[in-house]
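Figure 2 data, in text form.
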Amino acid sequence: MLYTYPIIECLSENKNDTEWYKELVRRNVIKFNKLIDRVRLCNNCSSAHIYFVDVCPNCKSIDIKRSRFLHCFTCGYVGKQEEFNKGYDLICPKCNTHLKHIGVDYDLPTAQYVCNNCGFVFDEPETIYRCMTCGEQGSPDKLKVQEFYTIKMTLFGYEWLLLEQKKIVFSILNESFKYVSLEYFQLILDWFIKLFRRNKNFSFGLLLIKFQNIEEVIEYYGISKSMEIYREIANRISEILRNTDVVCRDENYKLWIFLPATYKKGICKRIEEVVKNIQPDKEVKIRFHKKIKYSFELSDESDAENLMNELDTDND
């Protein structure tokens, strides 16, 4: 490959995946900027490692030689100069005329080529290409032409990449928590709400954690450092939780934690202290929203969905 694109190397495992970057252009993720080269590629394997050779138009042999021809004015014979050479003199091999003066006795037509394989005489050789990668050969007209441009991310592409990085960073939480599905989480929560209404000993808490500025953190610290930061946060929060606690996450970067047999406040403060202790000593800090509801705060109409909506809409 003559050219590589650092952006493509970041987005794809195959740094030479030209078809994929063309698809990204069609999707407006990246765009062509400036034309820097136009190259011809093998029609068979798309390799740029090709070379050109001159061959005989008749038999395609490369054993050709450029020769000077003489034209005898006396008899009209045309032949290679070697045929006329007799020592230091020029003598027509057909009529034996002694050729002394150019323009009077003879002239020199345009130089021609002679094939040493088949004897064919021609004015210009045929040019063919040969691929050093696959061995394909043929007319240069059959070569594929590819233009190479500098490329850059579009605004849409930048936002798309940031969103993908945000998903990657949030997925780091998977290493520290064992998630259940949202449907299963709501099923457990509904069940405990009903149990609590029958027996107040079945107390519980529902905790919501929303990470609010993941994009800002990624832009400031980069993807690798951001992953380290959120991995540490997840590990510390996981240490606070018990084996009986149930964790769920949704597609909106929210972490739901069900805390059975919980009736005392304090976990929000502990989580806040955890994040405070590992906050980067930089301008951009980790911001998150945390809110907890306890079973004794339930209204008569509360179910799992309503309770989660209340937490999600409340401001910290």
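Caption note: The first strand starts at residue 30 and ends at 41.
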